[in-house]
Amino acid sequence: MTDRVTETFIAMSGRLNYPMLLVTTAADGERAGCLVGFSTQCSIDPPRFIACLSDKNRTQRIAARADALAVHFLPSDADDLAELFGGETGDELDKFARCRWHPGPLGVPIIEECRSWFVGRILDRQTLGDHVAFILEPVAADDDGDGEHLTFSDVKHMEPGHDA
Hints:
- By secondary structure, the chain is of the alpha+beta class.
- The chain has a single domain (19-154), classed as Pnp Oxidase, Chain A (Roll).
- The protein is built from four helices and nine strands; from the N terminus they run αββββαβαββββα.
- The protein has helices at residues 3-13, 58-63, 79-87, 152-155; strands spanning 21-27, 30-36, 39-43, 48-54, 68-73, 101-103, 109-111, 116-128, 131-142.
- The strands form two sheets. A seven-stranded antiparallel sheet has the order 2-1-5-8-9-4-3. A two-stranded antiparallel sheet has the order 6-7.
- β6 (101-103) and β7 form a beta hairpin.
- The longest helix has 11 residues, at 3-13.
- It is globular.
- The mean pLDDT is 90.
């Protein structure tokens, strides 16, 4: 692609207002979690979901050894959680020591402030440029029906814990 095409594409896609999700996982006695902006449902029957994790962050390295991910829908007022899981790196601090959580299905951490979440068994992993797509099969879920969730425009100002 030419520089102009790349610049135009980045400008256009930067105006999209994706939901921001919090993904957690656990493997070999380690927990990890990060803010995720690239995700989507990708099948209705059977139900499937894709969550993309940056290849530069600790959560992706732990998820590479994990069996499942928990995908949390952040309440619209959860700026503190977004900052913790998106603006800090688990390479330097224990994010779970700074929030309330409990072990969930398949051993993944469930963040208590997030009242809508699902746990997905990892069916496949695909490298997509600088992110790894985790294809998930939902195996457990909870939803309080709250429709207002944090979006990209709510966290656009935030400095990431790692480069994307």
